[in-house]
UniProtKB/TrEMBL annotation:
One Pfam family it belongs to: Adenyl_transf
UniProt protein name: Aminoglycoside 6-adenylyltransferase
InterPro entries: Aminoglycoside_adenylylTfrase, NT_sf
Gene source species: Enterococcus malodoratus ATCC 43197
Highest rank taxon of the organism: Bacteria
Length: 282
């Protein structure tokens, strides 16, 4: 079965099930399977947001998910927005994420009439027993707002990066490679934020950098993209050193350009000390 056919079947089964549940009131599809820009491919999952009387009833157990297909597993998860959901894996490797919230929350959101940020790139109604679900759908789909650069935000990220750089170096010296990899992920988050700011500096504040590095090959400048080839290292000390050095080189180049463009101060003493320590211990 092709993925599109499978997810259409899931949606239809959900609609039929939802109509029969007196405590399920509204449901939406969001994410890639509701987007027009960069629409879903065969590997995209399905994201369903449902509003119910008592979310705990649906969060405490997952047997209700079995109404929609042959369920392999479902894992409870707290998403980045603070909401609770089930990450569900069905037979065939198909994933459906069920985000669950209360009818009270929906009523408050609908009364405001402000579309959810999650819906701004694409969303559609799957079930509506209230007649008001359309209030949360944007009139026009567009990119979501990203964090604009500020002097305070830049200072925090630049100090965080150099703090993490010396921390990573120490773990590599100690051959604590697992710890180094965990902290390197945090370092790369700072690098990504800086890349996003840099691209907006070059192309304008309205330039679309998506989120979490999605479609980065499409929106990042090619010279930056080429340098990204070297910032991820293997699980050994020598290559971890190399990757750290290349990460530092790229980050410092972009962050100094940002500082010069926006007239932000740069922590020269901190940078000098970190570089000296790394040079002495590599």
């Amino acid at each position: 079965m092709k993925s599109e056919e499978f997810y259409q079947q899931i949606e239809q089964r959900f609609i039929e099930w939802g109509r029969e549940q007196t405590d399920v009131h509204v449901a939406y599809v969001a994410g890639s399977r509701a987007r027009l820009d960069h629409a879903a491919d065969e590997y995209s999952d399905l994201d369903i947001l449902l509003y119910v009387d008592d979310p705990k009833q649906y969060l405490n157990e997952n047997n209700w998910i079995r109404n929609f297909g042959n369920l392999n597993t479902a894992i409870p998860f707290q998403n980045g927005g603070g909401g609770l959901e089930w990450l569900s894996l069905f037979e065939g490797g198909y994933q459906v994420d069920f985000v669950i919230d209360s009818l009270t929350v929906f009523q408050e959101q609908a009364a405001k009439g402000v579309p959810l940020d999650w819906f701004r790139r694409g969303s559609r109604i799957l079930l509506d027993k209230t007649g008001t679900a359309q209030r949360l759908i944007p009139e026009q789909f567009e990119k979501t707002d990203s964090s604009p650069i500020t002097a305070e935000g830049f200072a925090f990220t630049v100090n965080t990066f150099w703090f993490l750089a010396i921390y990573l170096a120490k773990q590599i010296v100690r051959n604590e490679l697992w710890t180094a990899k965990l902290r390197d992920a945090e370092c790369k988050q700072v690098l990504l934020q800086t890349i996003e700011w840099y691209e907006k500096m070059v192309h304008g504040e309205s330039y679309d950098t998506w989120h979490a590095g999605r479609f980065i090959s499409e929106w990042v400048d090619q010279d930056v993209f080429q340098q990204l080839n070297g910032v991820f290292g293997r699980f050994d000390a020598a290559d971890s050193w190399r990757a750290l050095q290349e990460t530092i080189t790229l980050y410092e180049d972009l962050s100094r350009k940002l500082a010069a463009h926006y007239d932000y101060s740069y922590p020269e003493e901190l940078v000098s000390e970190v570089k000296q320590w790394i040079q002495a211990h590599k």
